[in-house]
Amino acid sequence: DIVLTQSPLSLSVTPGEPASVSCRSNQSLLHSDGHNYLDWYLQKPGQSPQLLVYLGSNRASGVPDRFSGSGSGTDFTLKISRVEAEDVGVYYCMQALQIPPVTFGQGTRLEIK
Amino acid sequence: QVHLVQSGAEVKKPGASVTVSCKTSGYTFTVYALHWLRQAPGQGLEWMGRINTDNGRATYAQMFQGRVTMTRDTSISTAYMELTTLTSADTAVYYCVGSLKVPAPSRAFDFWGQGTLLTVSS
């Protein structure tokens, strides 16, 4: 199975400041079609997770442009350019290159200072 | 408008079985596979398997093989997940999810059910 390792596991950020989460895979997530099958999700408190970024760098519909995804192969990053209070929650990366199984990172908890 | 609406919370005793349903609407049910995930209290997300809603073929995560069965009823656009031989370790929120409108070839989960809390306790 593909193992995803996120860092840090927790973040405390002042509103308006940037934030970054790393996701590293033990195998390349680059498909022969040229896409990286790595997605990012945010689970806000008490809610189902929501898709933020798909295929490594594509923002999902309705996601604010302060969120951006980058990376290729085994190293990926989710960046928030200016954190807002509503960004609180747990961020997960997920790989869908090799199914079964779909696998997730451990999650990164973001809190506001 | 796409909706995935799951059945309500369940409380089961160890050794029992549970079936969670996922009623879909707003799209053609048989075009997209549905996946099931779970999340134990305070823990991360765990993929359980998926079902191809056109032919009913299911693929399961190895750790659930033999204990999980995923089915669907195309006449009512509903998917089901049955988990047997429950233990306290199965206490979790169970989600049905789909890659319904995200542009191809993405397999990202852009639609999620509201979750179903299963509590296994004697």
Give an overview of the whole structure:
The complex is a heterodimer of chains A (113) and B (122). Helices cover 0% and strands 48% of the residues of chain A. Chain A is an all-beta fold and 113 residues long. In chain A, strands 2, 4, 5, 6, 9, 10 and 11 form a 7-stranded mixed beta sheet that branches. In chain A, β4 and β5 form a beta hairpin. Chain B has 122 residues and is mostly beta strands. Chain B has strands at 3-6, 10-12, 18-25, 34-39, 46-51, 58-60, 68-73, 78-83, 92-98, 111-112, 116-120. In chain B, the strands form 2 sheets. In chain B, strands 2, 4, 5, 6, 9, 10 and 11 form a 7-stranded mixed beta sheet that branches. A 4-stranded antiparallel beta sheet of chain B has the order 1-3-8-7, with no helix packed on it. In chain B, a hairpin with a 6-residue loop joins β5 and β6 (58-60). Chain B starts with a strand and ends with a strand. The chains are: A mainly beta (113), B mainly beta (122).
